[in-house]
Write a structure and sequence with these properties.
mainly alpha, three-stranded antiparallel β-sheet, 3 helices, 65% helix
Length: 115
């Protein structure tokens, strides 16, 4: 069971985390959306990949919230910037995903041009 208000998430017996706009992953989503929308492929392919990618990014973000609410302890003397760690991991995942998406679309375009 979790207790929430407009800006905080509390799991009883665990830590409270503050959720602000920087926690929503809007910068990561903006980068992903800008790349997908700017890449020259069919609109249908863009929309499907864009929706799937945004849902995937948000799913990873929700997993981060769950892990933080269960294991984060602000009182310990550790300094961990979980925003930076999350962004680095997600940007790496996005880069790998975009590489394979671009590679697949380039193969489809070259195969269609050859036919």
């Amino acid at each position: 069971m979790a207790i929430t208000n407009n800006y905080e998430l509390l799991v009883p017996g665990h830590a409270t985390i503050q959720l602000v706009y920087s926690c929503l992953g809007l910068g990561v989503i903006s980068f992903f959306a800008a790349f997908v929308l700017a890449y020259p492929v069919k609109f249908k392919s863009k929309i499907a990949f864009l929706i799937g990618g945004i849902l995937g990014i948000e799913f990873l973000n929700v997993i981060r919230f769950v892990l933080l609410s269960l294991f984060w302890n602000r009182n310990e003397n550790r300094v961990i910037d979980h925003h930076a760690i999350f962004n680095i991991i997600v940007y790496i995942i996005i880069a790998i995903t975009l590489y394979f998406w671009v590679k697949r679309n380039d193969l489809l375009i070259s195969n269609n041009a050859a036919n």
